[in-house]
Each structure stands twice: as structure tokens, then as C-alpha cells.
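We both want to read C-alpha cells more fluently, so let's practise on a single case. Once you have written the record down, we can walk along the chain together.
***
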Amino acid sequence: MTAPEETEKKNRFNQQNLHREEIFSDLTMGSIRQMTPIKANGELDKTRPILFIGQSQIYTPQGPMPVQFPIDAKNLQQAMDQFAVAMEEFVGRLIEEAREMERQEQSRLIVPGGAPGGSNLILK
């Protein structure tokens, strides 16, 4: 297979996973992306669920950080009702992951006199 053929095969558009995207915003809290599954001919694909994705930002000491999180909902009204809870749960998981990474980093031991070239043996 030639390089252009390999690139074409790798970068082929997945026609089995098409979604139409609509964005709803309250212009204050954030936005909700509604991803409606469609077929390659543009018709609705009722065999797959509609996906809802919340978007907002949180403020950190380093400045605003955009966040994007799934919302478990069957329709737009449920997505709007679940927005705050889904965001809070997502941010909570982010904080826990950051704390765990920090804890792991602090628990690493560096043994002096390691291999030449500045690399040290790191034990966990």
C-alpha cells in the first residue's frame, strides 16, 4: 500500500458515527451541545441515543480553565436540569485525580548515586 493510500485509510471519515451538533447557551453559566445521531444520508438515526455535553469554565489560581463533561439525559430539558450536578461531579473527579497525581508524585523516592548522566533510579 502506498503512503497516500495509507493516509486515506487512516484518515477516513467514520460514516457510521455521524452526529449533527446543536449548541444551546444561557450566555452565563455555559452551553450544552446536543449531538443528534444521523445516517450518512442525513436522516435521523433513531437506533442510537442523543448525546448531551456540557461546557463551562472554572476559575483556578492560574486563570479560567474550560471544562467539558457528559450529561446523562434523554432530552434537552433533562440536560438543562442536570447541568449543574454533572459539572459539579466532573470537577470533583478532576480535583480527586489531581490530588492523587500529587500524592503519587510526593511519594516517589529518588536514590542518590544513580546511573551516570544525571538519571536517578526512581522507586515507587
